[in-house]
Structure formats: C-alpha cells, structure tokens
Amino acid sequence: MLNFILKGILRDRSRSLLPIILIATGVFSTSLYYSFIRGYERISIDSSARYDTGHVKVITRAYADELDEKPYDLCLMEADEMLSKLNKEYPQLNWYERIQFGGLVDVPDAQGETIVQGESAVMAVDLSVDSDELKLLNLRDALRKGKLPAVSNEVVLSIGLFKKLGVDLGDDISLITATMYGGMAVGNYQVTGVMEFGIPVLDRGMMMMDISDARQLLDMNDGVGEILGIYKDDQYHWKESAAISEQFTKKYSDPNDEFSPVMLPLHKQGDMESMLSWMGSAIFILIGFFVFIMGLVLWNLGLINGIRRYGEMGLRLAIGEHAGHIYISLIKEAVLIGFLGSLIGTAGGVGFGYWLQNHPFDMSHYLSNATVMMTPDISADVNWFSYVVGFIPGFLATIVGAGFAALAVFRRSTASLFKELEN
Amino acid sequence: MILKLAWRNIIGGGFRTWLNVFILSIVLVAIIGFHGLYIGWQRDAEDNNIKWHIAEGQYWQQKYDPYDVFSFEDSRAPLPETLNDAETVGFLVSQGVIYPNGRMKNIIMKGVKTDQQLLDLPTEYLSYESGKFKLMLGYRTARQLKVNTGDRLMLRWRDKNGSFDAADFEIVHIFKSTVLSIDQGIVWLGLQQMHEMMKLNDEVNYFSVKKHVGDLGKDWQFKTQDDLLAEFRAIYATELSGAVFMYILLMFLAMIAVFDTQVLSLFKRRKEVGMMMALGVTRSQVIRIFTLEGLMSGLLAVILGAIWGTPLLIKFQETGMKLPEMMDSYGMDGMLDAMYPKYTLGLVILTVIIVMLILLIVSYLPVKKISRLMPVDALKGKMTKRKKAGSN
Amino acid sequence: MKIALVTLMVLIFAGYLLADTAEEIIIKIDDNLYSDSQIIESRMVIEGRRGSREIATKSWTRGSNDSFTEYLSPPREAGTKMLKLDDKLWIYDKNSDRIIQMSGHLLRQSVNGSDLSYEDFMDENNYQESYIPSIEGEEQYLGRDCWILLLTAKDAGVTYFQRRLWVAKEIYLPIKEELYGESGTLLKRIELSDIRQVKTRWYPYKIFYKDILNTKGKGTTLEIDSIDMDADIPESVFSKASLRK
After folding, report:
1. A114/C101 Cβ within 8 A
2. Burial class (CB in 10 A: 0-12, 13-18, 19+), C110
3. Among A38, A196, A248, B372, which is disulfide-ready with A263 (CB 3.0 to 4.6 Å)?
C-alpha cells in the first residue's frame, strides 16, 4: 500500500510537488527564523562574554565589589597557579587572563618632550601568535592597518585613539599610569597596528598590549585582573555556569580575605540576568507566534489538498473502496507529503542557518553613517531545536488539515464527491 | 463586472477564504504592531534627546570633546552676548570625585541654568540657594551609587585655579529619562552654583539652542540634531534590520496560503473558465478576475485586521512592552521601564501597500497559465499543456 | 594698692606687646621648616589594602620652592627622580628613560598610592608666601600648649584654601594641621610628631597624612631618617639635566 501511495506521490506532481514545496517553505521559514533569533541572542551574549564578562569570571572579592571600575589594584595574585587549577577542574571551559586599566598616552617629539596626550583604556591579553585570544576577540579581523604586536613593548591602538593622537605606525608613545601599588608607571611602546571592532566604546579610545607587558608595567608579577572562562562549545550554559561558580566560590573564597577569589557567572555580572531572562521570554513569544502562523497556514494547506481530491474520493467510493480505507490512505499520503515537505524545509532552514552562522551578515557596510560601525547583526545559531521547531508543527499541521478535509468521505454523499470530478 | 465576479467568488469560498483572510490579518497586525514598537523606540529616544538635552542643536566650544575628560578644562568660553537667553541653555562640564559609602569614584559634573524653560531636564530643583549644596542625578546613576533623594553625597572638585574643595551635597532630585547621555556617570549642579564653586564667570563648554543662530566665530562649532543623533540612529538601523528579516519570513508564510488557494481555485474552476472564455471573456480578463480575488482577500484582511487589531494595538500603545528592570543600562537610548509603540498613518499605509503588492504577485503567479489555456480544453476540465519545441 | 594695679597693667600691656602675632608665629614656623637648603633622607610608609609599602627617598631642597628628590628603594622605584622648580614639576622614570612634566590631570594623581597627591607636593611652599594667618585660640594638644592658627590663602591657585594649625608654643612648630576647601569642608589632616632639634631648629621626624574624604584609606606616614640643614648643594642639582644623571 505504501509503495502504491509513494508511486502516486512521485508520479502525480499536482498532488505532491506543490504541497511539498509549500510545506517546505513554511517549515524553512520557521526553522530559519528560530535560528536567526537565537543568533541574535547569541551575539548579545557572545559580545559580552568575549570582551567583558566571559561565560564565567574569576576575580578577587574586592574586585567584585567594584566590578564596574575594573580596579586592577585589587587583582588576583598567583594567577598561574589559579589558571592551572581552573584548567584542571573545569576543562569544559577555555580560560583567558585579562588585565584592564586606564592611563594617559603621551606622544613625545625627538627630544622626548610631550607633543600631545590622550586618555586611553588599555586591554592586556595574551597576544602570542598561537593564543586563542586572537580568535576570541576577532583581532585579525579587527586589524585595519599594520600588524598585531609580535614582541615586547608593541601595542595596537583603536582607530579613534590613533586618529586623535595623530601618530603613525612605527611611532613611539609612552603610557603613564599607576602600578597596582599606586606608584607611577611609565612604559614606552611602539605602535604597530590600528584596530576597529565596530563597537563604539572600544573604538573611541583603547589600546591593546600583551599581558606580559602589562604585568611588567603595573608591577603585577603573577597577578591578573580577571580570568575569563568561555565554554568550548561557545554556548552559554546558564545552569552549569551558576553551579560551577557556586562550587568554586565555596571551595576557594574566604569571606575574611578580600583578595581571595570568587567566580561569577555571566548572568550575575552587571545587569545581564534580567536582560537574558527577558530575551528568553521574548524569543519564546516570538517563536510561539511564528509556529502558530505556520501551523494555521499548513493546516489550511492540508485542507486545500484534501478538497482537491474530493473527485477522486467519490470515484473510489463509487468503485467500492471502503470509506475508512480511503480515509486511512489519504492520511498516509498526508503523512508522507508532510514528512517530505517538513524534511526538505528543515534541511533548507537548518542548512541556511548554518551558513548564516558561519557567515554573519554585517549590516554596518550598508549604513548611511559609515563613521559608526556596529558588530554583525544578522547571524544564526543552529541547535537541536532548529531541527524540530518547524518540522513537528509543520508535519502535524499538514496531517490535521488533510484529516479534516478527508472527513468528507464520511460526511458527503458519493454522488456529490463524484461530481467534483467533473469540475 | 469583473469586480463583481471576483467579489462573488471570494465570498463563495467560505471557510477557506476566511482562514486565509484571518492569517493575512494576523500578519498585518503583527507587522504593524512590531514595527510600531521600533518606531516608538526611535521616536522616544530621539524626541527625548531633543527635549531633554540637544534641543534644535548644540554649539560646542572648539576644543570640547565629551569623550575626552582632559578637554573639559581647556574648552570653556563665555556664552556669546548676542544670544537670546530664553532660547539658550549653557552647560559647564568638569571632572569631580564623589565618595559614595566611603568609596572614591570619578564622576562628571555638569552645571546647567536652573531657570531654563527650553529643556525638560528638571533644573528647577537646582535653584540657587546661598550656602546650600544641591545636586541632581539620573535614575541609572542613582541606582549604581545606591543613593536616594534626600541622601547626601560628598563631592570633591578643583576650581579653575587648581584649588581643591569638597562639600556634602544633598541629592535634591533623581530624574527618570530614557536619554543615557544626561544620566550615566553625571552629577547635575546649578550653573550658578558651579560657577561659584569653580570661580568661573560666565563660561560654558557647550550650549543647546532653540534654533540655529548662524556662525558664532571660531570659538564655537554647531552640531545639528543629525550629528548628535547619528550614533543612536546607527544602532537603531542595525536593530531594525533584524526585525525586517522577521517581517519577510512572516510574509513568506502568509503568501503560501494565498498561493495554494489560488492554485486550488484554478483547479476547481477550469470548466467555469472555459465557459467564460467561450462566452467571450478574454484570457487577460479571466486572469484579472482570479488576481482580483487574491487581492480582495487582502482587502478583507485589512478590514478584519482593522476590526480586531485596532483595539489591541491601542491597548498595546497604552501599556507598552515592559522591559526588565536593568534593561535601561543596556547602552541604548529610549529604554527605561517599557517601550511604547507608535503607529503612524504612514506605517499602516506602507504596510498595507507592501502586503497588497506581494499579494498581487502571489495571486497572479499561479493563474498566469490561463494565458495559454484553450477554451475547449478548459471546457473539458483540462489545462492546456505547454507545446514542446518542434512539435505540432 | 594703686602701684600694684599700675604695675599689673604695665605687665599685662608689656605681655601683650611681647606676645607673638600670627604673622610672627608663621615666620618662626617657616624658619623651623625651611632653611636655605636641606638634604633629607626619609621613608614614606603607605598603608594600602594589601599591606604597607615603604619607599625611601633622598631630597635636596632649596628654600621652599625648589627641590630634587631621588627614590632609593624599593628596587623598582629606585632611580626615579622628581624635580620641582617653582610651580613646575618633572618626573624622570628610569624604566622608560622619559622625563614627564606633571601638569593638569597628572598632578591630581596620588604619589605612590599615598594620601598625598603631586599637587600636595607642589604646595609645599612656606606659609608666609601663600597664607594670611590669624590666631583663633589656644588649646592643649598631646600635652603641649598650642596656638590654633587659621591660615587663609592669599591668592587663588593655592591648593588648600584654608589651613588650621595647632602650633606648639614652645617650639613654634605645628603638631597638627587641618586642610580645608573654601566651602569649609575638611579635606586632609596632617599630624607631626617625633619632634627633634636640628641645630637651632625644630623639625618633625614623623608626619602622618590622612585624606579625610577617603574613609577606606589608612593614611600615609613620612619618617625622616636624617636631615642636614643649610647643606652645601651644587646649583646643578636643580636642573633638568640632573634628572638623567
């Protein structure tokens, strides 16, 4: 019977091809939209995690109290030992050391006299050639001119700072700041490159240097401002990150020692928790709405396809086929068509979603104000739900629609059904 | 006659017609509702920026850079005398240090004329009283510092000569605004008070104006509203592109239903088409009838959408979409407790036109094969097959 | 009786005439604290959140306006030099081999994380030059009879608008000082102790600075190890060239 139905579907394009295409289109739209909106959420979390919060962050208790200020004088010491422990105890995350501080950039003339000065935020990360930070922070993509620091005492400037200071690649600058103990610190650096992240607050006035240079400058031997943990699968695991943070803090933190370490998950830093919750709710509502519309459309489709077959139903009844048998065979057809359509639609939606995930679409190039760039805003995040969010409702809606239409074999007379053949 | 025929046919469609109409109406209302939210956000952010801070534009002292604290000291100048006092609000900017709960924190001090009427910034709370130190904060800053109206805040500053001073200020007011640039990291003082504190006369760093007053010399640079809103508009545009993606996918879904209905319609009415053609109706007229039927479902959708959608959208406009408590520090203007949609006639008309245009195409595509339909085939209930090249 | 009364009045009047005026007191204070030249070796003990740090310095001063300071320890700070000439301040950082003029925002930085800013350092002019004194009263403080002097800035540009000094009468040296802004807010407190005689002068060998507004801070102590008043200092010391030597 199945063979017969399948042959019928494959040979009669009007019965199968169009419905399959239409079902596939509906499921494709829903699956893709889900992946897209997850991509939007992921970009927000991603951006925060990479540049600021990590998925988890290890800092001292004192630092945590003034987290917004990034008080590097309250940094974590014996960082190497802590890093080993983290790598051993939490291998599901990659760990990154960061030091963030502020200083005054001083541009001297040939005699060493100041020409111009400007304030700068400084981000110190591992810039060695095989460092994961290069990929994490998209440093190679962000580089607009020159090259990344390769040896000690080289820095890159953000595009805003570079223009403001009026320097060139290869120029020497000094950075005046304070050591972690408050003493004056002055370092000389060569400008090797210019970066543009597309994030205004970073692009305005930021310098990037290797973390070893920062440690040297700030007298922070074996110290680190923050250790960021990023899940290896790039996904933020809300519950797990909360659990490991609690576990870590319980194990290593001492309420009587303000310099003992604590671990904070992303959603406990700043205002992320409520924002993420809200985003989750918004996504749920939007997807629910989408699935509802798709369900209606595909149910309607199933109905229409069934109605188209009234003549055939009448003929089959007339030649003696049992009504129940006809009904079952129509359902079986609907199952196959629904399955094929949903499968193709899901494959298309997931496939396009994967493509978009790996090739995010940067809207900034198309903005009229080219002086302000933003991070890529059209991307996708395909997960297991992308496979089912369109498939299941699409499949079921088609069957339900066909099922309702096929009830005509029981409700309408053979003659009236047969008459449809003439139309 | 064509219109009458099309109308009769669409109404005769019964449940199928109304299902399509219902789906289309949902999509229409959803797009209008959602886009209204974006428009509301944009309007809110821009209008409030204008009302609270930038007015019709600002003149910045030549060296003033709001992002460079070191520029503040060197970028002060007296307000030009030719200006109309009532149409100008000057701002004096300086660095300061506050001590909330004993901690030290750098802050920006901004002095503003207290009796100004141009901006919505509630400067009247800062009215000058000799010997009294008053300051005002934005809601976000107050929350960050964990202070309330009536609390006291120690503020330290340096006057123009470099002398240190500090005072215990009373927080006289905490205002709520969706404009980030007048809130985060700023304490507001009366301009007279700040002049007194800093031993300045009439100097300001920048001023907002009711209207552009032309060139004021090399000391002052005019920034238009477009200049000042550029950054927000860029953020808005990128956020909006994501929404447009959703609209496209929604329209996709809705048009599937219409397309399939048209296919069914043609399938079931082949004989009717043959009859019409036999009676002298041209092929193009027949195509028009079917296309019109598709369009009419769109029209019905507009009417149905208006009936149930209007009260819903009005209610949505009143209640807004609640935002999480901390959303306002996400870094975007226009977000505080809730986002309120704004529906414009333009939005509604544009949405309807776009939907109808797409509907036109989607209604036409399935029925264009009528152009090669032979009346005899149609009367027999068949569709004329395409002739292969070289065949008779 | 009459004679006794007149004698008493004469004594009181004479006493009044002989009593120090506020101006005379601060001249004597300045005489104690400032000589034509001084060489001072000292240690700054800074109480930070991670414990205390000690920075040893040697200073050469000329009058009250010019000074040259070299950091001796710890090893990271050793070799850093500061030159103050009137109202200008330069710092030489040996690690970067750069001479930076401290101005504007840089002056507001604290010296080595202490409760002193570079501006405080700049403000070390003698009292006569910068302030108008008046005697507010008298008080016993730490077992010493003291005048309470109120010093009000003569001109704009003095870092602290007012200072209140508890001046030990017998040695003409302030043992406590409070620094105020024009609003009357107390900004810093300085306590001078371990007073020793150096030749004909009295000098505090221990000075404690406290930033009052920073309630979480624990203050900074300056301890003098040795002081050589009226020392012979070559003029070349007070030049930018000496920063790199």
Report:
1. yes
2. buried
3. A248
Distances (CA, A) of B16 to A83, A413, B174, B260, B359: 65, 21, 57, 11, 16
Residues B21-62: tens digit of each pLDDT: 888 898 899 899 989 988 888 888 899 999 999 999 999 999
Same domain, B28 and B168: no
Considering only CB atoms, which chain C residues are within 8 Å of B163? 153, 156-161, 181-182
Q: Quick one: B107 and B13 in the same domain?
A: no
Q: Are C34 and C129 in contact (CB under 8 A)?
A: no
CB pairs under 8 A between A and C: 59
Do B160 and B281 fall into the same domain?
A: no
Interface test with A, best of C44, C91, C98, C114 (most A CBs within 10 A): C98
Please report residues of C whose CB lies closer than 8 A to that of A179.
76
Last residue of a domain, one of B211, B243, B269: B211
Residue-wise burial string across B159-170, b where 16 or more C-beta atoms lie within 10 A, e elsewhere: bbebbbbbbebe
Token pair for residue B161? Answer: 């000569």
Report how far residue B38's alpha carbon sits from residue A36's, in angstroms, rounded to the nearest whole number: 18
Q: Which amino acid, one-letter code, is at C19?
A: A
The torsion angles phi and psi of C90, rounded to 5 degrees, stand at -125, 145
Most distant CA pair in chain B: distance in Å? Answer: 105
Return the residue in B94, B152, B164 with the most chain C beta carbons within 10 A, the one to mutate for interface testing: B164
**How far does CA B391 lie from the centroid of its chain?**
60
Encoded tokens for A246: 């609690």
For residue B43, the model assigns a pLDDT of 87
| Of the partner residues A74, A104, A174, the one whose CB lies closest to the CB of residue C96 | A174
Tell me if chain B has a CB within 8 Å of the CB of C183: yes
pLDDT tens-digit readout, A258-310: 999 999 999 888 777 777 777 788 888 888 888 888 888 888 787 777 777 77
Q: Judge if ipTM > 0.85.
A: no
Whole-angstrom Cα distance, residue A331 to residue B282?
40
CA diameter of chain C: 81
Correct CATH for C20-244 of 3.40.50.300, 3.40.50.11690, 2.50.20.10, 2.40.50.100: 2.50.20.10
Whether B326 and B356 share a structural domain: yes
Is residue B337 one of the residues assigned to a domain? yes
**Which residues on chain A are in Cβ contact (under 8 Å) with B105?**
69
One domain for residues B33 and B98: no
Please indicate, yes or no, whether residues B180 and B243 belong to a single structural domain of this protein: no
Measure the CA–CA gap between C72 and C79, rounded to whole angstroms. 7
| A167-to-A153, B74, B103, B370 alpha-carbon distances in Å | 16, 22, 37, 70
Q: pLDDT tens digit string along A48-77?
A: 899 889 999 999 999 998 888 889 999 999
Q: Is B108 on the interface with C (CB under 8 A)?
A: no
User: C49 and chain B: CB distance < 8 Å anywhere?
Assistant: no
Domain of residue B166, residue span: 57-211
State the total domains in chain B: 2
| Residues B250 and B173 occupy one common structural domain | no
- Is the model more confident about A28 or about B366? A28
pLDDT digits (tens, 9 = 90+) for A325-381: 888 888 888 888 889 999 999 999 999 999 988 887 765 554 433 333 335 567 888
pTM, two decimal places: 0.83
Least Cα distance to A396 among A309, A349, A335 occurs for A335
**Burial classification of residue A358, based on how many CB atoms lie within 10 Å of its CB (0-12 exposed, 13-18 middle, 19 or more buried):** exposed
Residue B368 and residue B235 share a domain:
yes
